[in-house]
Amino acid sequence: MMHRQQTALVVGSSGSLGRCLIEHLSRDLKVRVIGADVIAPSSEDESRLTGGFVELPNTTSLPELTMALTDGLHQLIEDDQELDAVICVAGAWEGDPLLPSLPPPIDIIAENDEDDNNVQRLWLLDCAREYSENVERMLGKNLYPVLAAGYASQNYMTEGGGVDDDDNDNGGLFVAIGATAALSSTPGMLGYGLSKVATHHYVQTLGETSGKAVTTKSKRKLARRIRNHSSTQSYLNRLSVVGILPTTIDTPANRQAMPNEDFSEWTNSIDIAKEIGLWMRKPALRPHSGSLVKVHPNSKGDGAEFKVAR
Amino acid sequence: MMHRQQTALVVGSSGSLGRCLIEHLSRDLKVRVIGADVIAPSSEDESRLTGGFVELPNTTSLPELTMALTDGLHQLIEDDQELDAVICVAGAWEGDPLLPSLPPPIDIIAENDEDDNNVQRLWLLDCAREYSENVERMLGKNLYPVLAAGYASQNYMTEGGGVDDDDNDNGGLFVAIGATAALSSTPGMLGYGLSKVATHHYVQTLGETSGKAVTTKSKRKLARRIRNHSSTQSYLNRLSVVGILPTTIDTPANRQAMPNEDFSEWTNSIDIAKEIGLWMRKPALRPHSGSLVKVHPNSKGDGAEFKVAR
């Protein structure tokens, strides 16, 4: 069986999961891959990014990020080219900043009550800044790349419908990485949890705006109105949107951060990469649009299981 | 029965729901109210804010907002004063920006292909900016005030435990306004949905960090570790955190925006204000900490029903 060459945009292409994904797509599946990341690709990665690379700004500003990706794709993609898949694997983890258990450092000598009050004030403001910047960073690293990818790619996403191999229901595919932890409350990692729960909501919302969604009658009606509003939205008719929710991915950084955990409980990047590749090749095997799919290692230890959670 | 005077911080005190709430708390329940808003209070409102007012910056920066509220409270609240309740009713609604159904304006005459390409590029960047700024505004107006209120108030929130009237289990109360719509996908109002789903997650997370949460054993253990980490966190032992999820609140702005809707299906601000007042007075009537409570008008049309959704 011959496939036409497919094109994928991978946002987060220089990360651990991203590098594994572009290797699998480019080398094993002969997909033309466009990369995007805040970190430039290594020369090894560059050889896999046959579609080019967009260097993203390291920013917590959503407009800045979205405009940079939009601009980069505009420069890389010709008018008649299409994206078959957009996969956002950018992300990072941070816990809440530890609240200081002590009052302001006692080596700052306050001469009087007014000084004392001012020392306390600056210390309170410092703590407030630290807390909020943690939330901002988590939104910036986990949620905003997904929103930027979803927005910037819409002008290029394939409408599908061509006869492609044995499966002609080949609309575009959008994949983002969520987190099993964010399916419920996340004490101790508020910013991370907020960014992932919002990512899940994006997957569900874009997914249920698609013509492939299985949802309520009123949502289907609303989604149809949105799709019909603009001719630029026809890619939504056959788009599949899926969130992959790992617990922990087995990466060098995670092993270093949690050396005493049982690594066999962690999901290998290649298992996620292969599943995404499968969804690109065999659209019939995709979960329904808007679904959140948990992944964990299978019991035999030679792969991973993907199960729809929501 | 006599109550000691309670103190409440109301973030969003100049909005429609906020004004109704400060009137009810201050006039009917004799609560000492501290207001906070981007809009200065009217002289009528000012007379109800016997605890003072913090003017917030109109910003989409979470650190800026959190620091401003932290600083304002530091200046207003004496060391031995306590907050009995923090209620965040700030918020706004916007739908997605309509995607232009037309290519760039044809009155821009492009001299050649390069100009043409540049016109298209600037137009794409404009659309990207509009889309992202909508998301930023919704996070800034709906989510960030909740996060800022939760953070800034922690230094002052009562630990409870005193004998107060007929109910001595009187820990602090934190209330935020969510949205029934954000319990599922929100096509057509992505930014709003993201901001509200994240608000729900904050309520669940802060709520389940409290000693009053009904949750899993592992979450209780984790939450206990967080509470014990710092002496500043002891208010969490008895804190109740509740999200109120309306469909539509009956406000002049909403009547103007949706003149053809059935207003009797909308919730009156006073019914929300009264329920919050009840939770302040009778802690035993509070929903469990971390819960999301839907509100809609009752069938008799003379009040509202509050039902735990999650």
TrEMBL record, chains A, B:
GO terms for biological process: L-phenylalanine catabolic process; tetrahydrobiopterin biosynthetic process. SUPFAM superfamilies: NAD(P)-binding Rossmann-fold domains. GO terms for molecular function: 6,7-dihydropteridine reductase activity; NADH binding; NADPH binding. GO terms for cellular component: cytoplasm. Keywords: NADP, Oxidoreductase. InterPro entries: NAD(P)-bd_dom_sf. Homodimer. Belongs to the short-chain dehydrogenases/reductases (SDR) family. This is NAD(P)-binding protein. The lineage of its organism: Eukaryota, Sar, Stramenopiles, Ochrophyta, Bacillariophyta.
